[in-house]
Automatic annotation (TrEMBL):
The chain crosses the membrane at residues 275-296. The lineage of its organism: Eukaryota, Metazoa, Chordata, Craniata, Vertebrata. Pathway: Lipid metabolism; bile acid biosynthesis. This is 25-hydroxycholesterol 7-alpha-hydroxylase. Residues 1-19 form the signal peptide. It comes from Chiloscyllium punctatum (Brownbanded bambooshark). GO terms for cellular component: endoplasmic reticulum membrane. SUPFAM superfamilies: Cytochrome P450.
Length: 495
């Protein structure tokens, strides 16, 4: 009898633990509504991946603004009401923003995990070097970018009466990757065009695999990606960096800092430099593409922005010409308000970055006077600003491109409302709070310079009959979405 009883207890326990594995967790009082699907480990991953935005909107209708979903081994609590964002952004103690991004960076770029107690790197000290992307240093970077963008465009050797047809995304990749690389990493005394062409080719191949690496697909299953990553990393060994003249201060400082850690091997430091190059390009290239594409596609926007650029050039005593020697100050760039708005509008339509925080301990997150949610250690809290960017209560006809949406009375418009209340957060392509992108000012300046040169120098048009370009959702949650196809455009000197 005792034996049977023991066996029954064991069977119930086994069934319960199997049930727990299969069914996941049980929602506790005070926790957000929970949806975990029935597929072990994956949970709702497939539905989320197929159409993240649609998935979240349908769950918002069902559960409200705060709910938890089990996706690929993680319980993610989404907070979709923009008025609640600030409670997450301010909560630095229990919600950590670094753990996740450091882990992803280590996986994707193959460098050691920075928080690894065996080989610790002082992250705060490393992040202090980001100040070399701002303030006075940004002016220096802008000057270098302006020169490099133009020298790279000059290499295209467009004849005086020539009319050239190109694929727009490939064109943006070619110009921006090279100009940014030269701006950040300087030059070698001898000709290195061949190496740079290889770098661009390999970067684009690696970039295609980025979402799969983030999804933790082993690199060995991704064709020759591991070899490509190794080749790209080899551009940043100490020996090769020491040969380069004129490294940007942000890179010089980062290099000196990483070299103080003698237990990091050279290829590991090189992988950190490669990660930085990816951060500088991975979103900037598609962002520049979308901004250019929408402008060229919309004649009214194209004319208004070109008009503004020409006014600023005139006031600055600059003229677009085949020598490519335009020079603009930060003030000139800042005064291009309509261009700034057009760039923001393309960010609004094409950025889909998730802001992720990891819960450090079981605690109650206070959201407003009467609302709070219980969260568990190890779960993620996720903001998904794409929902805000496409919210018809905030942006009228959100699916429509409106180049001057962010201009009011000739100045930058910053007041946006939802249900009559002014929003503190209304456009978030660069993340939020202390984890905000440190390269954001540099990125916007670079895109502005690229567009100012393109629109002032060339007549541009999309080839007739080209089908509209849509968004490729492979990077949903990871930043600026890529186009789902390339598009042919024509350019010639503006007479
Ligand atoms: C349109 C272009 C860009 C977009 C949309 C963008 C967006 C982002 C986002 C969303 C993050 C993560 C923020 C978070 O975790 O909440 C990030 C991080 C970062 N970005 Fe950017 N970025 C852009 C361009 C740049 C450029 C040009 C640079 C450098 C020159 C750069 C350097 C970085 C770095 C170093 C980080 C990691 C910061 C850390 O250590 O926490 N980004 N960026």
């Amino acid at each position: 009898m005792e034996m049977w009883f023991l066996l029954a207890v064991l069977l119930v326990a086994a069934a319960l633990s199997l049930g727990k594995v299969l069914l996941g967790r049980i929602r506790r009082p005070g926790e957000p509504p929970l949806e975990q699907g029935w597929i072990p480990y994956f949970g709702k991953a497939f539905e989320f991946h197929r159409d993240s935005l649609g998935f979240l909107l349908s769950r918002q209708q069902k559960w409200g603004d705060v709910f938890t979903v089990y996706i690929a081994g993680k319980y993610m609590t989404f907070i979709l009401n923009p008025f609640l964002y600030q409670f997450v952004v301010q909560c630095n103690k229990q919600l950590d923003f670094q753990g996740f991004s450091l882990e992803v960076s280590a996986k994707v770029f193959g460098h050691p995990y920075l928080n690894d107690p065996k080989i610790p790197v002082n992250i705060e000290e490393m992040q202090k070097r980001y100040s070399y992307l701002m303030g006075e240093e940004l002016n220096i970077l802008n000057g270098r970018t302006m020169k490099n963008l133009q020298s790279v465009m000059k290499q295209e050797q467009l004849g005086p009466t020539e009319c050239r047809t190109e694929s727009m995304y490939s064109f943006c990749c070619r110009i921006i990757i090279e100009a940014t690389y030269l701006t950040l990493y300087g030059k070698v005394p001898e000709d290195e065009q061949e190496e740079i062409t290889e770098l661009k080719k390999k970067f684009i191949q690696f970039d295609k695999m980025f979402p799969y690496l983030v999804a933790r697909i082993p690199i060995e299953l991704l064709g020759n990606t591991k070899v490509i990553r190794k080749e790209l990393t080899s551009y940043f060994t100490s020996r090769r960096l020491d040969q380069r003249l004129n490294l940007a201060n942000v890179i010089k400082e980062r290099k000196n800092f990483l070299e103080t850690y003698s237990y990091l091997q050279d290829h590991q430091r090189a992988a950190h430099h490669f990660a930085f190059l990816w951060a500088a390009l991975g979103n900037t290239v598609p962002a520049a593409f979308w901004a250019l594409y929408y402008l060229v596609k919309n004649p009214e926007a194209h004319a208004a922005v070109r008009d503004e650029i020409q006014h600023v050039f005139q006031a600055a005593g600059q003229r677009a010409n085949p020598d490519f020697n335009i020079s603009l100050t930060r003030e000139h760039l800042d005064s291009m308000v309509i261009l700034g708005s057009a760039i923001k509008e393309s960010f609004r339509l094409c950025s889909a970055s998730m802001n992720i925080r990891t819960v450090q301990e079981d605690f109650t997150l206070k959201l407003k006077e009467e609302q709070s949610v219980k969260l568990r250690k190890g779960d993620w809290v996720v903001l998904y600003p794409q929902i805000l960017h496409l919210d018809p209560e905030v942006y009228e006809n959100p699916e429509v491109y409106k180049y001057n949406r962010f201009v009011e009375n000739g100045l930058e418009k910053t007041a946006f409302y939802k249900r009559g209340r002014k929003l503190r957060y209304y456009l978030m392509p660069f993340g939020s709070g202390s984890s905000m992108c440190p390269g954001r000012h540099f990125a916007v300046s670079e895109i502005k310079m690229f567009l100012a040169i393109m629109l002032a120098t060339f007549d541009l048009e999309i080839i007739e009959g080209e089908k509209p370009v849509g968004l490729n959702n492979d990077r949903a949650g990871l930043g600026i979405l890529l186009p789902n196809s390339d598009v042919q455009f024509r350019y010639k000197w503006h007479q």
